[in-house]
Amino acid sequence: MAKQTADSYDASQIQVLEGLEPVRKRPGMYIGSTGYDGVHHLIKEIADNCIDEAIAGYGTMVKIELLEDGGCRVTDNGRGIPVDIHPKTGKSTLETVLTVLHAGGKFGGGGYKVSSGLHGVGSSVVNALSTKFVAEVSHGGELYQLEFEEGKPKTDLKNLGKTDMPRGTRITFYPDTKIFKEFTKFDYGWVLDYLRHQAYLTKGVRAKVYDYRTGDRYEFYFDGGIKSYVKHLNFGKDVLEDEIFYVEKQVEDSVVEIAMQYNDSYTENVMAFANNVYNPEGGMHLVGFRSAMTRVINDYARKNGLLKEKEDNLTGDDIREGQTAVILVKLPDPQFEGQTKNKLGNPEVRRYVESVTNEYYSYYLEEHPAAAKKIIGKAILAARARKAARAARENVIRKGVLEGSSLPGKLADCSSRNPDECELYIVEGDSAGGSAKVGRDSRTQAILPLRGKVLNTERARLDRMLNNNEIVSLIKGLGVGISDQFDVKGLRYNRIIIMTDADVDGSHIATLLLTFFFRYMTEVIEGGHIYLAKPPLFELTRSGNKESDFIYDEPDLDVLLDKQIAARKSNGTKIDESAERFKQAGYTDQKRYKGLGEMDATQLWETTMNPEKRVLIQVKIADAEKADAIFNKLMGDEVELRKSFIQARAKDVNLDDLDV
């Protein structure tokens, strides 16, 4: 091989990617990932264009169809992508939009005043990442079609003649499995959630989904818009006021729309959107809303004597307790952080939202004094609880309880101090905890046994939590702190594994722990650190060598027994058909485990803790809104809501299958 020198770095070594090649070369730069989220982001990119037509007042419908052959078809009744020749490219405008990055009606010139797209790369990116992509446009009663393969035109633009298809655009695409290697099929539930959001956020739009694989179909339409959304988010919760605060106001060239209602929970649920795009990390619209809310409520409380002269002002945390709100801003030039649009950066939006909230929520409180009194009363209680929590925290800190150097006495820590290779098993019961301590790999596995059921943190404020020994042990063992001292960088273990019995009580304890993590340590879940251990349900002892086979799911037991019986028959072994099935399969004993405590240290290691053999389920927050609703139903105060939820799903749902 020739030796490379600084002088050998020349033009021949510079790779120029033309057209849509950059997208296929680095798809993650455009859609975030090539996994589940990325492949569903393709649907969103196309459907967002349909919603843009509705926002602009040109369309009233978006329809997503999941096809039997694995494709997806998205249709709207907007203006339809133009098909005339584009003056700059010399190609049809339809081909230009679908093959040139940053080509579209979102860069001024009257295409869209408000758009969810920022870069104008949505449709072309989907085209680039599809094995087959067909665009159909209805103009003047005639249907035009253009077909692509891997982003390259397969045919010229065709005029298919007269059509019954209403005015609009229809896109059909098939994700490229060479890029999306894990893709098998689109998730109907994901599409349902996406369209429900869009229907809430766009008053007057009909959002439809058809799943031809199963026959399922659904349609959304909400006259109330984001007011209906807030009502949905507060379903099953006791609200403090019957009327939902709502305002829609144009400020300069933008529109601010806010809906809000308080409930009696201890958590905040505020969702911020810009041009119908959800911004999970908030941004300037959320900053402006929070700043104005703190000012308005404190001013009203002072003016009406609800806060005493010597009392401190309420903090933002006090005011946000129990608050459910949807903030939607529509602006001509949104500045998002990245193509995935997690955060809105426009500084002027803070001023817009702050101004509207200041003015109109002040009116609301003046016109609804009874509701105002309840809201401020709840915030005052939150402030007192916050002070009590601070005192409790300072007290336990003085005792060394929350300091990382003072670990809980019941924790059997691992010897490694490298968080990347360390894991913490949170174990139900002292008996199982004892076996886990003996059977573990002490270099990388730490054990924290919990006695009984932990505190239900869905119904408890921080001050009460810090008086609970099990919760304090957990906080202390993790090393991340709590509340305003929380810092995920201090996490001492890369994996936190909840290991409980495979019964109703075990599932309850796991749910209590997940509630705690979801409400107070969301970043730990989002970082992919929380897992559920899956202990075996059955142990089958083989005849002859007395070795054991462990079965983790009931259906797997039947599969194994059928397989073993069939194998013995094929080998000519005489089968006693009257014997129990496990004996027909060649086993001398079948044991069903009722709990972890029935296993000795060796069995627990081999079945549930050995990294080479164990089964772990990673806990993810696939949809924060859905997770919030599930935890509220399972752990909240509404007994009937929880009862009906459990009864409706008792036969079908296992905690291990909940992707929250």
Give me some keywords for this one:
single chain, 660 residues, alpha+beta, Heat Shock Protein 90, Ribosomal Protein S5, domain 2, Rossmann fold, 4 domains, nine-stranded mixed β-sheet, five-stranded mixed β-sheet, 21 helices, 19% strand, disordered N terminus, disordered C terminus
What is the strand and helix layout of this fold?
Elements: H1 21-25, H2 28-31, H3 36-55, E1 61-66, E2 72-76, H4 93-99, H5 122-128, E3 130-139, E4 142-149, E5 152-153, E6 158-162, E7 168-175, H6 188-201, E8 206-211, E9 216-220, H7 226-233, E10 245-251, E11 254-262, E12 269-274, E13 277-278, H8 284-303, H9 316-320, E14 323-330, H10 347-367, H11 369-398, E15 423-428, H12 430-439, E16 445-450, H13 462-465, H14 469-478, E17 495-499, H15 504-520, H16 522-526, E18 530-533, E19 538-542, E20 548-551, H17 554-570, H18 581-584, E21 587-592, H19 601-609, E22 616-618, H20 624-635, H21 639-649
Low-confidence stretches: 1-18, 105-110, 400-405, 653-660
Total discrete domains: 4
The CATH topology assignment of the largest domain is: Heat Shock Protein 90
Helix content: 25-40%
Give me the secondary-structure category: alpha+beta
Described by the principal axes of the CA atoms, the overall outline is: flat
The CATH superfamily label of the largest domain reads Histidine kinase-like ATPase, C-terminal domain
Q: Which CATH architecture of the largest domain would you pick? A: 2-Layer Sandwich
Number of DSSP E strands: 22
- CATH domain class of the largest domain: Alpha Beta
- Work out the helix count: 21
Please compute the radius of gyration using only Cα atoms: 29 Å
Biggest sheet architecture: 9 strands, mixed
> Strand-residue fraction?
15-25%
